[in-house]
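Blinded run. Sample ID left blank on purpose so nobody reads anything into the name before looking at the predicted structure. Input follows.
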Amino acid sequence: MKFEIKDRDAAGRICKFTTEHGTVTTPNLMPVINPNK
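Blinded prediction complete.
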């Protein structure tokens, strides 16, 4: 298993995740929201 970060900023990252079954590229940036704030 391999996890490679292609790009990042304060709100997220673009990654490439590789397993024995194939590769997944994360095309979307998903901000993390703390519901307790």
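Unblinding after everyone has recorded impressions. The mean pLDDT is 81.
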